[in-house]
Batch of 2 targets.
Target 1
Amino acid sequence: MDNNKLQPARGVKDLIGDEFLQFQKIIDIARQTSSNFGFMEIATPIFEFTEIFKRTLGADSDVVGKEMYSFIDKGEHNITLRPEFTAGIARAFISNGLSQHVPLRLFTTGALFRYERPQKGRMRQFHQINFEIIGAKEAKADVEAISLAVLLANNLGLKDKLRLEINSLGDNESRAKYKSELVQYFNDYKNSLSEDSLRRLQINPMRILDSKDENDKKLLKDAPKMAEFLSSYAADFFEQVKAGLTNLSIDFIHNPLLVRGLDYYTHTAFELTTTELGAQNAVFAGGRYDNLIKIMGGQDTPAIGFAGGIERLILLSNLVIEKKQPISIVPIGEKAEFMADKLSFILRSSGFYIDLALNGNVGKRLKRADKLNAQAAIIFGDDELANNIVKIKDFATGEEQITNTSQLIDKLAIYS
Ligand code: HAM
């Protein structure tokens, strides 16, 4: 086989050793923290009909326009590997008739796929921890979702590394007004706008706020701000969210330029951002999506949610992984060796973590026990076996004791 083909494809990676343990720990912390808010875990399919994403994320969004892994399957269905969770979860909410159970708090995790240019913290296959509160129109739900994101960041040891930015994208009425103001403003600067922003001016002018182009950024300084065009409902809603955060002593920055890359958002948008990952500054991101479920054909169901990128969280957090410490079995002699297999099986069946080297003399086995940071070793030779006794050596205290095999499990209880 061509050696190049033995590499992983561009933008994907293997998770091995400590990195895998960090990955799992992040998911464990997400599961634990969100369960304290009443979140229930679900799993949705890795692929959906392409329409699910095309109709909801926005025809002009980078995700739909350039990044989806779409293909026609053998049954001629147009299929897409999920680039995000929310649209698939909204589909699941409708197909499973879950509307009588609102408000529903749903947690999910898994792999997602976007054909992006790979960079530090930006992959083509990546993973999220994702949270949705479905069927909640109250600003309290926004505060709850944001407070979960903040608490998660704290529990992942990122308290001082992330800052919370929020904005209101208003309702349909507010946005229609704002968009026409923005178009009017930028029409006067068409010659200085970047190519990307010029295109967005036609299709989705609010995405210009997100431009990374230095010249666009200068123009944005004097551009009209969304806050001035919020309807009274949207303005009041945003005030409630801010007051709710202040009530919880959660610090935030109102960033009037914060817009999201997906089109389904309304009202609250928020991100927990870092300066440590270069261009990939959002670690947790989300917002309210009051129209999505209705657009997909469901009942009018307001909702809010957010997701955190696990790869970015691994890069940022220095989670300490506690490695489980085994009990090492150290047989000396042929019969003892045979007995060691049986003893290991019995002890593993009783719930102990047992390490039994596949070969090697006593010295080598004890070295291995030391390397694995074993709690204790059970050492026995053929003679001990004949008398049904073994030696337990405790590595923390250095103490050794001889015990009858019938009492072994009781004696080992302190190591379980
Ligand atoms: P998003 O902003 O597209 O939102 O992604 C959320 C997070 O996923 C980002 O802040 C980042 O940490 C991570 N992420 C996104 N793309 C990549 C990538 N290519 N490589 C590595 N990490 C990445 C959503 O996906 C929304 N569905 C979030 C949401 C849930 N909104 C409401 N509910």
Note: The pocket of histidyl-adenosine monophosphate is lined by residues 84-86, 114, 116, 121-123, 126, 128, 130, 132, 261-262, 282-283, 285-287, 289, 305-309, 311-312 (CB under 6 Å).
Target 2
Amino acid sequence: MKETISQVLFSAEQIHKRVEELGAQITQDYKGKEPLIVVVLKGSTIFAADLIRAIGLPIRLDFISTSSYGNSTESSGVVKILKDVEESLEGKDVIIIEDIVDTGLTLTYLVRTLQLRNPASLKVCSLLDKPSRRKPESTVKVDYLGYSIDDHFVVGYGLDYASRHRNLPYVGVLKLEQ
Ligand code: IMP
């Protein structure tokens, strides 16, 4: 199967500008606080690395890794935590950083699970959202969003297909050809 990028959706420059805006918004909303940033591995790492440097506040940083059973382009909704956060969430202002919300099932599970640990607040920041793909069981609310997109499979800026393309500096639509 040949993998090509059929369209660049967001250039490195466009993403940089949007990430700066999101960072400024978070800085304003969390003034006087020290949010705990929980990065969902691995797709969010590039976004998170840029975003935390656009936040003008002291922050704490932690990582969580989930896996969804099923094939690689479709979430099954059965999520398990492969690597948990190391920090206690009790009383903290937690912001989950995600790369993309698709069916919403991964984040629904994650938010429910982390909410049980009694954070002072729990919000979600995602670079991308595909609202047309949302499953009715999803209860996800994206508090900070980079871009809403149509139903494309996208790669780059951390997002992968079969572990490839994460290091593209832009977000592009992946086309698979025989
Ligand atoms: P959800 O549970 O269906 O919302 O799936 C979210 C996860 O699926 C994301 O964190 C990504 O890892 C993956 N995913 C969904 N859509 C895409 C895409 O277009 N490109 C790359 N990964 C995607």
Note: Residues 58 and 169 are 27 Å apart (CA to CA).
